[in-house]
Amino acid sequence: MSLYETLAAEIAKSIRDGVLRAGDKLPSVRDACAARGVSPSTVFQAYYLLEARGLIRAQPRSGYYVSAPAVSLPPEPGPSNPDGESTELAISERIFDILGSVRNRDVAPLGSAFPSPLLFPLPRLAQAMAAHLKRQDPLDTVEDLAPGNPGLRRQIALRYLIGGINVPAADIVVTNGALEALNLCLQAVTRPGDTVMVEAPTFYGALQALERQGLKALEVPTHPRTGIDLDAMETAIRRHAPKACWLMTQFQNPLGSLMPDDRKRQLVDVLARHGIPLIEDDVYGELYFGAARPVPAKAYDTQGLVLHCSSFSKCLAPGYRIGWTSAGRYTQRVQRLKLSSTLSASGPAQGAIAEYLEQGGYDRHLRRLRATLQAQQERMADAIAQEFPAGTRVTRPQGGFFLWLELPAPVDALALHRQALARGISVAPGPIFSASGQFGSALRLNYGHPWNAGTQDAVRVLGELARQACAQAVKAG
């Protein structure tokens, strides 16, 4: 991050943590320069950024002050409490029925799994694609077969190195998006009938993958801030002897949870003691709101048991469908599965992204993207606080682009989904994130699309429908 972004992030954290409170005066530009050893321009840029996000306000001839929050935000949800039993899955039909609506561009995409494509540098990527194709050697089509384009794999290895993880390019397999990487890894470490530990709630794509491969899901309690409960995981291991674990340790979908570093280390240690491979789904890792990228669980893997999967779909090139895995001791098995199924990811798409990364500018794009997403999260959270019924609980993710809402118990999320869709609004209801159909009063909302009058109105209508559902339930009960 630049100096002014780092300063702004530190001040914003102090405001979120309550160190700086509404009405407190920030240091003068001169005092901040002296304390931080930075230029007046750096301080002004940091203050302008915080002012644009509504966190501080300028008072003429006086200075900058912490703004009062527009509304008091709802409380956060508590940890989940699944029944602790493994479950055979039959969920795909419901998921397909519910999520089909997000393809309609006339529907407000609060239920979408992707951020707005308008947030990505698509013209730059198109230029990179053209430059790559102009000088492409026909024999590159052979080099691009699994494990993938050598230049792209070097660039991915560099991204790992920047994050403090030494992953050789030879250990990286390029795939058709992260979902293929995850499916290949799952196939590499399990057999039909095995049990796989997942979070509760969990990404519905994981449940579909388990169902397709004839596997059972074992849901483990998960906290919306700190992720999976490690004590409950140990208990589940002793009772059910799962063969693998599929987790998102960073900005989990749908909760947005971020496991602290010490808990990631403990997670890897627990699984290593039992010889259980971890499939780490890390597609949101670049979308952090803090000063530095948090490290994945892969950073603590010393036995090759963590199969780390990610992609460029959520942070750079959604339509290019380029993902990868660093699969540790299972790399050769994953590579062979890739060769025997789809051979390779798109050669031109691999080359275009490699070209773009080599040109530089990726981190600059990510800084803009993260700032946009954080601002949009704040706007949506404020709107939810104003529009939704009393008793609503909302997560406070430190990255990604999802909010998880738990509505007052009488509200039926599936019925609310149908009512909202009739009004041109998509949502993702809680039951699709559970193997056992839990979270019947929960919703996942996407704040990764531009905050405008249409989005604001969609949240207003959704809140109105939720209030009506609450009132009807109280009247009936």
TrEMBL record:
Pfam families: Aminotran_1_2 (PF00155), GntR (PF00392). The keyword Transport does not apply. Transmembrane segments: none annotated. InterPro entries: Aminotransferase_I/II_large, HTH_trans_reg/aminotransferase, PyrdxlP-dep_Trfase, PyrdxlP-dep_Trfase_major, PyrdxlP-dep_Trfase_small, Tscrpt_reg_HTH_GntR, WH-like_DNA-bd_sf, WH_DNA-bd_sf. Coiled coil: none annotated. GO terms for molecular function: transaminase activity. It comes from the Bacteria. Residues 1-69 form the HTH gntR-type domain. Keywords: Aminotransferase, DNA-binding, Pyridoxal phosphate, Transcription, Transcription regulation, Transferase. The keyword Iron-sulfur does not apply. PANTHER family: HTH-TYPE TRANSCRIPTIONAL REGULATORY PROTEIN GABR, TRANSCRIPTIONAL REGULATORY PROTEIN. In the C-terminal section; belongs to the class-I pyridoxal-phosphate-dependent aminotransferase family. This is PLP-dependent aminotransferase family protein.
